[in-house]
Amino acid sequence: MGMLGNQLAAGQALTIANDSFNGDGSTVAFTLSQTVGSVNDIEVLVDNVQQSPYDSSYSVSGTTLTFSGAPSAGTNNVYVIYNASRHIATSQVIPDDGSVHSSKIASNAVTDAKIAAVATSKLTGDIPYANMPVGSVIQVQETSNNTTQSTSSTNPIVILSISITPKLTSSKMILMGSTPVSVSVGTSNAYASTYIYDPGGNQLARSITGQAGYNSDQHALFAVHSPGSTSSQTYTFSLGSSSGGTGSVSTDGQTYNFIIMEIAQ
Length: 265
What we know:
4-stranded antiparallel beta sheet, 18 strands, 46% strand
């Protein structure tokens, strides 16, 4: 016949608290090892015959078991089982293979400490950017070119631009621009400037080179900006002349770069 209810898994044991006493034909009161509240909390056997809790064969009070008549003489012939103590002596409940479904697991029940590893193939979707530590690089945008850019105007020309959509309103943007600059003299000393501008056209950084004749120099700029928005932001890296005496300024066919990093705060 099949067992009803939860079955014991392999390696588990059902332990039952019990007491045994020696009858002597005259003693009617015995001291129990546990306190009980009623006759229904225990089962009592005398000489392997179960006693009824309903015919006043015995009574209980705290830890005292009292018989209406003294049990006969014998060794461990008075046996008491504590019904409330029947339990599985293990901290494990092992379900059948394939029997636990996701609907049976409470939300947030599986903590990080319980996850040994996650396969790379499972790492899909967006990263929870809001949980990233301060200083984490959220995203990087980079562009470069080596097409010669040249101007003689004091109004800067855009040589590179980047549009970036911040993931968080609290992020800071780290901007870096680098370019070689050649300067040719006109009527007097010549000057060239490079700039980084924010989306509103405000100057974030500037580098200037002054030469008495045709020469070349490397410009490197660094800037920090807080857009305070998760809308697309366009930043520019520009080049211009800084003096009416400048013949022209150019990138001279060399590679120039512009990089933006979004940093968590």
